[in-house]
Amino acid sequence: MEAAHAYYTEIERFGLEINRETEAYKIYQKWLQVREFTSKICKEILNDYNNRENVKKGWYLEILKNKLQ
Question: Tens-digit pLDDT profile for the chain (69 aa)?
């Protein structure tokens, strides 16, 4: 997906038209959404973890597993 990201970024940079109806582009868009979602969650977890004492990271993993199912 990193290659697709580089590809679409360059297309946009050159001002070329993107066919947004292709299956590849739709998969890429879903990947971007998931990446943004997980990035926010990871930042929140690290901030929370750094502000607590005696909390194991495994505790957060269990919460994430339950939320994502």
Answer: 889 999 999 999 999 999 999 999 999 999 998 888 888 878 877 777 777 776 776 777 777 777 666
For residue 23, the enclosing domain spans 2-68
Output the six-digit token pair for 2: 């990193």
Q: Residue 38: name the closest of 68, 5, 9, 6 by CA.
A: 68
Whether the CB-CB separation of 45 and 63 falls below 8 Å is answered with no
What's the DSSP call for residue 21? Answer: T
Q: What pTM did the predictor assign?
A: 0.59
CA–CA dist 16, 27 (Å, integer):
20
Domain count, the chain: 1
